[in-house]
Amino acid sequence: MFQVLVFFVTLVAVNVGSYTYASSSQLGTVKFPTSSSGPAQKHFIRGLAALHSFWYTEAISAFEQSTIEDPDFAMGYWGLAMAHNHPLWEDQDKKSASEALSKITGFSKLTRREQGYIHAVRLLYGDGEKHIRDKAYSKAMENIYHNYPDDLEAACFYSLSKLGVARNLSTN
């Protein structure tokens, strides 16, 4: 099973020709439409590209900037929470992520897709043991992936969630 997951993540990475990680000024191209636009969206996209490179400090900085530009930018807070989860290292800053998620307002004004992403990350940082939360998050990401098959980000985050769950299984 783990080998299948590694193959799937590799396949997704190979088919993402627009992702080119060269330097801090050239992280690549990410498409992730949100309910925000302008400078907040620009910082959000930069944070997402950094997150895909596991460059967590840069991702946090960019997501924070997105919420400074638009304090009601729910997906900016989602990004902050995501940057506090390091699934391949089985490391998570639940306190910082929960603080970011507590700032999300106007949930009903978001698209169903955005609501799905936020619901998933709330499961990731919810109650219970980490391996149980990881499984719930992975299931929620699977639903997003199936509901939005053209959403490359859903495929990436779902794949990463499966690797996180597989790592939990190998250490138990």
Walk me through this protein's architecture.
- 65% of the residues lie in helices and 2% in strands.
- The chain is globular.
- It has helices at residues 2-14, 38-52, 56-69, 74-83, 94-101, 112-124, 130-147, 152-171, and strands spanning 85-86, 91-92.
- The protein has 172 residues and is an all-alpha fold.
- The protein has a single domain, classed as Serine Threonine Protein Phosphatase 5, Tetratricopeptide repeat (Alpha Horseshoe), CATH 1.25.40.
- It is built from 8 helices and 2 strands.
- A hairpin with a 4-residue loop joins strand 1 (85-86) and strand 2 (91-92).
Mean pLDDT reading: 85
- CATH hierarchy class name: Mainly Alpha
**Helix and strand element order:** HHHHEEHHHH
**What is the strand arrangement across the widest sheet?**
1-2
SSE order and pairing:
Layout: H1 2-14, H2 38-52, H3 56-69, H4 74-83, E1 85-86, E2 91-92, H5 94-101, H6 112-124, H7 130-147, H8 152-171
Antiparallel strand pairs: 1-2
Helix pairs in contact: 1-8, 2-3, 2-4, 3-4, 4-5, 4-6, 6-7, 7-8
Key features of this structure:
172 residues, mainly alpha, Serine Threonine Protein Phosphatase 5, Tetratricopeptide repeat, two-stranded antiparallel sheet, 2 strands, 65% helix, disordered N terminus
